[in-house]
Amino acid sequence: MYSIRWIWLFVAFCSVEAQQREIGILAGGGWAAGLPVVGAQASASAGFQAGAAGGVLLSQDLYRHWSGEIRYMFEQRNLRIAAGGVSTAFSGQAHVVHYDLIYYLRPRKQHIRPFIAAGGGVKLFRGTGAEVAYRPLMEYAYLTRTQELKPMLTAGGGFKMQLTSRMLLRVDLRDQITRFPRKLIAPAPGMKLDGWLHDFVPTVGLDWLF
Fold first, then answer.
1. Quick check: 169 pLDDT over 80?
2. Which of 106, 108, 126, 167 has the most CB atoms in a 10 Å sphere around its CB?
């Protein structure tokens, strides 16, 4: 009885030791389509300009095809309103923390491992520009110097390629899905601005095994 127990403990210990851990850095950008401003006489939209993104991650290769990773991303996200060929912007940024489950289409030890990913976390939107008494297109929405935290879902995929015994190249695409931050970009009286925001974030990075 005790021998069997020790065997199982030894197997469990070996499986933990066999797990690969990775730390990585990411760089890329992001783009999100604006949402229509409902109630406007002309065609108007509000959202975020495309911007740079960068971050870090920590992952654990749990099983033959499964792993998990937690990542932090800093994203430059200027607020924007556009209508009738005119647009106005306001400095902004986002801070993102999320955990993803990764499913690899190929097992460990393969040179290239495509994967799909899904998870969730939170996204903090921040307006960092200078507020003024008047800004073009204020009849549609207000761009504010505030911050708003939103729950977030993520979905995407990519691939990893072995460069050396301890280094991997990775290419990712994530769709960061949140409700629109209506405190940050507040609809003007008589206007409605609501819906789901899809922020597509492609990145390239390097992972180190340890």
1. yes
2. 126
Average pLDDT, the chain: 91
DSSP character string of 16-36: HHH-EEEEEEEEEEEEEPPEE
Q: Which domains does the chain have, with CATH numbers?
A: 20-209 (2.40.160.20)
CA dist list (Å): 82 to 66, 106, 140, 163, 210: 43, 44, 9, 44, 48
Determine the Cα angle at 199 with ends 196 and 205, to 5°.
155
Kindly state the average pLDDT of the residues 79-102. Answer: 96
The maximal CA–CA distance of the chain, rounded, in angstroms, is 79
Contacting residues for 133 by C-beta, under 8 A, at least 6 apart:
none
